[in-house]
């Protein structure tokens, strides 16, 4: 299994509700991509955390990384919803051992 993990901060005009709505939309849409096992998101517990939000997708295997990256559902969500809001972000894929 592969964990596609993103931690991020939104742009200054985004409200907490805006972020949660965007993340809920991503969970619903990205879960439809073949090979995606689970999509989840969260909010930092500590008020002073460097990154306030997390978004992750669990993939069946490493080959799903490329499928996901170029899938039309992902491309549309990333370009139209996620990237415009999540301006400060780190993305890493991890093999689950």
From TrEMBL:
Cross-referenced Gene3D superfamilies: 3.30.70.100
Pfam families: Dabb (PF07876)
Domain Stress-response A/B barrel: 2-94
InterPro entries (alphabetical): Dabb, Dimeric_a/b-barrel
Domain of life (superkingdom): Bacteria
Protein name as annotated: Dabb family protein
């Amino acid at each position: 299994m592969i964990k596609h993990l993103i931690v991020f901060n939104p742009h200054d005009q985004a409200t907490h509700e805006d972020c949660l709505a965007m993340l809920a939309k991503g969970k619903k849409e990205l879960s439809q991509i073949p090979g995606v096992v689970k999509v989840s998101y969260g909010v930092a517990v500590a008020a002073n955390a460097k990154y306030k939000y997390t978004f992750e997708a669990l993939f069946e295997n490493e080959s799903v990384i490329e499928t996901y990256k170029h899938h039309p559902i992902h491309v549309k969500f990333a370009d139209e919803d996620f990237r415009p809001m999540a301006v400060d972000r780190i993305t890493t894929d991890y093999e689950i051992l």
